[in-house]
Amino acid sequence: MLTLQNTPNHAGVKISGDYFDLEELNKAIYHVIGDENKYLHYTGSRTRILGICHAIRQAALGERNVETVFNGLTDHAKKQKSFISPDKNIYFSTEVLWPEILYAAVALKDFVRLHREDAAFPDWEPEVHVITHFQSLVLDCLHGQVPEAEYQVIMKTFSDTAPVRDYAVQYIDFLNLKYIDMAKQQRENALSSVAMKIATQDSDYNAFRQQVLAAATPSKKAIHEIQFKADYPEKIDW
Prior knowledge:
Blueprint: E1 3-6, E2 12-17, H1 19-33, H2 43-60, E3 65-70, H3 75-81, E4 88-97, H4 98-118, H5 126-143, H6 148-159, H7 170-180, H8 184-200, H9 203-216
Antiparallel strand pairs: 1-2, 2-4, 3-4
Helix pairs in contact: 1-2, 1-5, 2-4, 4-5, 4-7, 4-8, 6-8, 7-8
């Protein structure tokens, strides 16, 4: 079963599941976002989501975290069925920063909408339901980390988010790095604000986007092609 949990120091979310859970999520994401020649105004968002897919894929291959989880098989059940079996399953997991996972939840709304417009019978595609389940897990995990009144506002805002067409995805790097630099309590206090910034495309985001567009204009580059000049730390205090 796919699960999402807040990391101990509130830096992000740990995505956990067995091999098949993680592969199912990756397959669904690839199915919905399409190939690189589709939805060209969402190339930056697609690239960021594929970054999460890469981390999930590495986790499924055992290259991230490996843990054991009780599978529900009790000694009584084993005696009744007369067989010997482990009572734990192997689960794999990877961490994703809070701003990154929240943006993915928002951007996937657009990809699901675009996919629905192209697909013949999207309501019957299991991949669409896997994606919406994943988005609900992200917001449910957020629910446990912010005050209820703030969460209700966030939920309404996430339900009415503007499209992320030609989004300045460098802004997520900016938020990620600010969030990494915070202490545990600061992260906890700032999480609602970060969620709202991603959902609303507020004045700070719009000012940031104008800077990116100004950098893109002389070289006639697309907005997603402008590099954000800052390095992530090798180790994150998750």
